[in-house]
Amino acid sequence: MFHLDDRLLLIIAGSIAGICSGLAAVTLRLSLEFVLEWLHPFRHYWWAFVLPGIGAMLSSLYLDRIAREGAGHGVPEVIYAVSRYGGLLRFRSSYSRLISSLLTIGSGGSAGPEAPVVMSGSSIGSNIAKLLGLNERQRITLVGCGTAGAIASIFNAPIAGLVFSIEVILGEWKFVNIIPIAIAAVAGAEISNAIIPEQVIFNHQLFQIGFPDIMASIGLAVSTAIISVLFTKALRQTGRFAKKSSFPLWVRAVVGGCTVGAIGMFMPVVLAEGYHFIQSMISGTFSMGIFITLVAVFAKIFATAMTLGWGGSGGIFAPCLVIGSLTGILFHKILFVLFPSAGVASEGAYALLGMTGIISGVMQAPLTGIFLIAEITGGYETMLPLIVVSSISSTMSHYIEPASFYFKELIERGQFLRPGTDARILSDLNVSELIDPGFIKVSENMVFREFIEIIKTSSQNFFPVIEDRTDDYKGVIQINAIRKFTLDPGMYDMIFLNQIMDTEVITASLENDLQEVLDMMDINRMDSIPVVENDRFIGMISKTRILDLYRRELIMQTSVR
Question: What's the topology of domain 4-195?
Answer without folding.
Answer: Clc chloride channel (1.10.3080)
